[in-house]
Write a structure and sequence with these properties.
Layout lengths: L10 H4 L2 H12 L7 E5 L3 H16 L13 H8 L5 E4 L10 H12 L8 E5 L7 H12 L5 E7 L7 H5 L2 E4 L5 H12 L3 H10 L4 H9 L2 H11 L19 H18 L5 H23 L6 H13 L6 H11 L8
Parallel strand pairs: 1-4, 1-5, 2-3, 3-4
Helix pairs in contact: 2-3, 3-10, 5-6, 8-9, 8-10, 9-10, 12-13, 13-15
Bound molecules: zinc ion (ZN).
Zinc ion (ZN) binds next to helix 4.
Length: 338
């Protein structure tokens, strides 16, 4: 059974107007539709949302005004997350990689007959999270797509995908939306004042669909307390801040990197040489760890948090270069770049 779509029921009202118009375009432009698309956006949530929009367009039996009707048997099943012709792949909860087993399962799924008669659709959310083995397995599907199949990949970091996979997909790049338009839409969606919408958008670093989803979830509060914890690290008496365990590891790492980058920018003039070096070294350590996690390493979260905390706290320490060197060695990287 396909994994249920988490946000499927939010689809109709969540789709911003700039995406609706592109969805309409996609279904109404005549001519051959490809078997595989890669949807790219700076915002992973926006890319995933658009890919889901393409899926429902493809599966709908009664397109109206260029959009899925939301009422036919197929649309209803889609919105309930029970559509038998749709399989949605993403990293399993607590994991940061899409494994080969998942892609193999998808291959079998695409080879089956379409239950609703139109097509079999495979969605791969954050496709850049596929392991190399998984991507190679997907490549076989892309090279010889089973009859009536449509593969929709979405990614905010498409450059991480093997070129062989990218080149077999039609690329759909979603443009960055104008900030004023984004703010208007956000304010209308979450019904907040203009300045609150701006704060939301800032917290999501300009990624408007992500900002919209953050407003629903507890994730805004979680992210705020996370960001607030960094400047206090040197005063933290014992263990890591509680807020670090409350978010996904990848979010923790990316927020730490953003914080470090802001610190590097803040170090000016004569102080630059001395102070920036330890920040840059810290950045390298965290970035290496992040890249390992993205490549599918699945270290225990508690251990990583404890190590990270120790690392960040010791940045001012005289022995930081040595501590950082040991950290990098433990990741399989040797030495410390000068
Ligand atoms: Zn429909």
């Amino acid at each position: 059974m396909p994994e249920a779509l988490e946000h499927a029921s939010e689809l109709p009202d969540l789709t911003p107007p700039w995406l609706s118009s592109r969805l309409r375009e996609w279904i109404t432009v005549p001519g051959h539709k490809g078997h595989a698309y890669l949807v790219m956006s700076e915002d992973a949530e926006e890319a995933a949302l658009f890919a889901r929009g393409l899926a429902v367009q493809q599966l709908c039996h009664d397109i109206q005004d260029g959009m899925a009707c939301e009422h036919c048997q197929s649309c209803k099943a889609f919105l309930q997350g029970t559509h038998g012709d749709l399989l949605s792949l993403q990293a399993h909860e607590g994991k940061t990689a899409i494994g080969i087993d998942q892609v193999r399962e998808a291959t079998k799924f695409l080879q089956q007959t379409a239950l609703y008669g139109s097509a079999k659709v495979l969605l791969v959310r954050d496709a850049d999270q596929m392991t190399l083995a998984a991507a190679n397995s997907l490549l076989k599907i892309l090279e010889e797509p089973p009859g009536n199949s449509l593969v929709l990949l979405s990614s905010a970091e498409a450059w991480r995908l093997p070129p062989t996979v990218r080149s077999r997909c039609q690329l759909l790049r979603l443009p960055r939306v104008d900030k004023a338009v984004a703010l208007d839409w956000l304010a209308s969606q979450v019904q907040v004042k203009a300045e609150d919408a701006e704060h939301l958008l800032d917290m999501a670093r300009g990624r408007v669909v992500s900002a919209r989803l953050m407003a629903d979830a507890d994730s805004l509060a979680a992210q705020e307390s996370l960001v607030a914890s960094f400047p206090l690290l040197s005063h933290q008496p014992s263990g890591p801040p509680a807020s670090w365990s409350g978010v996904e590891l990848s979010m923790l790492l990316s927020e730490i990197l953003v914080w470090i980058e802001s610190q590097v920018r803040g170090v000016g003039g004569d102080r630059f040489r001395d102070h920036s070096q330890s920040w840059l070294l810290l950045h390298r350590c965290v970035a290496e760890l992040f890249s390992r996690v993205k490549q599918g390493a699945t270290p225990g979260k508690e251990i990583v948090i404890a190590e990270l905390f120790r690392l960040c706290r010791s940045r001012d320490h005289a022995a930081f270069a040595e501590i950082a060197r040991r950290f990098l060695t433990s990741l399989g990287r040797d030495g410390v770049a000068g």
